[in-house]
Amino acid sequence: MTDDVDHNRRHFLTVATAVAGGAGIALAAIPFLSSLKPSARAEALGAPVEVALGSLEPGEMIRVLWRGKLVFVLRRSEEMLSRLTQVTAFLDDPESANIDQQPAFAVNQYRSRKPEFLIVEGSCTHLCCAPLEQFEVGPAADWFGGFFCPCHGSKFDLSGRVYKGVPAPTNLRVPPYRFIQDDVIMIGADSGAT
Ligand code: FES
Fold first, then answer.
1. Angle of CA points 4, 131, 28, to nearest 5°
2. Is 170 close to ligand 1, i.e. is its CB under 6 Å away?
3. Got the DSSP string for 167-180?
4. What is the pLDDT of residues 100-121, one digit of tens each?
5. Is 11 a residue of the active site?
6. Which residue in 176, 9, 27 sits closest to 103, CA to CA?
7. What would the pLDDT profile of 150-160 be if each residue is shown by its tens digit?
8. Going by fewer Cβ within 10 Å, which terminus of the chain is more open, N or C?
9. Residue 192: which region, alpha, beta or left (left: phi > 0; alpha: psi -120 to 50)?
10. Around Cβ 84, how many Cβ atoms within 10 Å?
């Protein structure tokens, strides 16, 4: 068991190295908030954030900032969605019973308004490290793709649902959001739409 954990951790850390470059590119697109005047900066940090999803390919994820928080926006492929039922037995809260971790619209296995799009805060629910994406299946028998937190080894599936027996106590948090067009969401706004 220990060997499996160590092997998996090495594997994840290897993947993390590859991912880091892409993360830097995505984050480079985020406005440089510290250059704004205090009032404008406060507004920018608190305002809803509009995100266009049209250019996201299945399996691709981008990162955005909302209220100073990192938010993951993942377009799941049909194949990725099919894994959500395969991982259920390994999860601590597969039905999103903890109502503090998502709006009511996300109490489903997809934890989202539309199955193909996952929007979750990129903050581990243990001590707030940023989990890393590891979307491939395996090598561990219980791994069907998701997010791995390298700080203390917490694991989350492709819906941000926490695994049993890891330090993180809850699923990743789903922020309020709504679709303002078929392929555009507004993070931070959750009323009056789908
Ligand atoms: S902060 Fe993620 S496991 Fe501790």
1. 135
2. no
3. S--SPPPPPPEEEE
4. 999 999 999 999 999 999 999 9
5. no
6. 176
7. 999 999 999 99
8. N
9. left
10. 23
Neighbours of 46 (CB within 10 A): 11
Give pTM, 2 decimals.
0.78
Instruction: Locate 52 and state its tokens.
Output: 């266009």
Which residue, chain included where needed, has tokens 């203390």? 152
* Ligand 1 pocket check for 151: Cβ under 6 Å: yes
Atom of ligand 1 nearest to the CA of 149: 2
Cβ of 9 below 6 Å from ligand 1: no
Parallel, antiparallel or unpaired: strands 61-66 and 49-52: unpaired
DSSP per residue, 33-84: GGGS-HHHHHHHHHS-EEEE-TTPPTT-EEEEEETTEEEEEEE--HHHHHTT
- How far is Cα of residue 23 from the mean position of the Cα atoms in its chain? 13
Nearest CA to ligand 1 atom 1: 127
